[in-house]
Amino acid sequence: MRRTGGAALWLVLVVLAACVSALVPPMQSPDENSHVLRADMLSRGQWLLETPPGGESGGTTDPVLHTFVAAYLEDIVAHQGRALTASHSELTRELRWTRDRAFRPAPGTGYYFPLAYLPHASGLALGRALELTVLQSYWLARLLCMGCIAALLVVAFRIHCPPLLAVALLLLPMTVFQMVLPTLDGITTALAVLGLSLFMRRMLEPGEGPSWEPWVLAGCMFLVATTRAQVAPLIGLQVYLAWRRGSRAHAVAGILAVIATLVWTGYAITHTVDLRVRRDHGTGELVRYYVEHPLEVVRLIGASLAQPDLARLYERSFIGVLGWLDTGLDAFWYPSLWGGLAVCLAVSLARAQLRQAADARLLLLGTAAASVLLAFFALLVTWTPFPAQSVGGVQGRYFIVPALALAYAAAGGEAKSADAAALSERWSRSSRSSRSLPALGAIFGAGALYALISALLARYHP
Question: How many C-beta atoms lie closer than 10 Å to residue 259's C-beta?
Fold first, then answer.
């Protein structure tokens, strides 16, 4: 009965996510156009980008796909405040795949390991095989991405009971918005949750665990580190786990993941040409300069945090600034949802057995802090012209995964699994005060969902 209830609850959540997704037109997430183009390249067998002489890194795609992408970028994104109209659907509804190929730049995707685009590419490839239109293929890719994210989260929740704060972070408008679109944020977040769940279970439970665990953990950490460079410190969790538990399997898998991450990152930096930001210095040059001048990095981060406009952007875009940073929530929701997160953190800390696996918790805190610093550093060397007065391009959503690491540091001492129904049962059975946990989660989720849907309706369907 409990498994049936858990499956039903997950089904409801997936249906709600699909309904939210239906409210968002294509190409409304930052760089979604590049992600879709990269997925099409991968679906046709092009794993690595190529760089023409004097141009940016990219690949060959169907020209009709570029027409599809441009229709939404030029009519909605380029005109902030313009809503979705019937004419947009008419422009793209009958577009069909062709056998033509044309080169398109997509330099921003050159840093990401291509395997992360497998759900996106599978949807586009399946759409072509079924002779669907471009629009139908795009929505199929969205559906497969959401299905993949849901599957990863179900597995993660069954491996380790997530703390209330982690659930709240996954319900934030910003997190949900990215999860229902075919970009990499949703996949990366779900992989991070799975990796954190595996790490905490192995730190809390005795023994080696299943033979597949080290390799799944290594795969999660590798994909997260090679698609979101700012959270690369997470990959060190498995190396520590191998040392702490004396596990040869985790040591081998973790070291291979570190080596593979370094190799891919080195290749991506040296082979990707990105001319979107005009700079006189390459990424490699800037990395060397700032490594040799670490105090300059600290100064620039401090200058960024001290600027009221930037600080406000970080704070709001963590909770939810949707679209291409052109769709905010109602002002009421920012302090309300921040307050809700603070309550969830306090409740998680009150329930946590902090002395149990205290070293793992401290490591998670250090990893979260390092990931925040690396987010600024990554944008400093890839997106900010030199010399810099502050760090450009940083958004609050880049701190979601570090916040999840913080949440797991405040997790309880139970390593048992939890499906959606068992989660509510476990939260409510240990003490009278614990019985408020499902209600807190439901209230926070309802508020976050209302804020998200209201903003989407106002922006795209007034």
Answer: 11
Joined together, the tokens standing for residue 221 give: 């950490």
Instruction: Please name the helix (run of DSSP H) or strand (run of DSSP E) that holds residue 259, with its range, or none.
Output: helix 248-271
Query: What is the distance in angstroms between the CA of the first residue and the CA of the last residue of the chain?
Result: 43
Long-range contacts of 101-105 (CB under 8 A, 24+ apart): 101/44, 101/60, 101/61, 101/62, 101/63, 102/60, 102/61, 102/62, 102/63, 102/66, 103/52, 103/58, 103/59, 103/60, 104/37, 104/58, 104/59, 104/60, 104/61, 104/66, 105/55, 105/56, 105/57, 105/58
CA atoms of 268 and 181, how far apart (whole Å)? 25
| Burial of 218: CB neighbours in 10 Å, binned 0-12, 13-18, 19+ | buried
Distance CA 204, CA 219 (A): 21
Q: What is the pLDDT of residues 182-200, one digit of tens each?
A: 999 999 999 999 999 999 9
Q: What is the mean pLDDT of residues 379-400?
A: 89
Measured between alpha carbons, how far is 59 from 50 in angstroms, rounded to an integer? Answer: 6
Residues 6+ apart with CB under 8 A from 44: 60, 61, 101, 125
CB hemisphere CA count around 251 (13 angstroms): 7
Within 10 Å of residue 210's Cβ, how many Cβ atoms? 8
Q: What is the DSSP letter of 74?
A: I
Rounded to an integer, the average pLDDT of 155-180 is: 93
Q: Give me the mean pLDDT over the 246-253 stretch.
A: 92
Helix %, strand %, coil % of the chain (to 5): 70, 5, 25
167 close to 154: Cβ distance less than 8 angstroms: no
Residue 347: what pLDDT? 87
> 423 versus 273: which is more confidently predicted?
273
Task: Provide the whole-model pTM.
Answer: 0.91
Q: What is the DSSP letter of 96?
A: B
Candidates 245, 243, 221; CA nearest to 232 is: 221
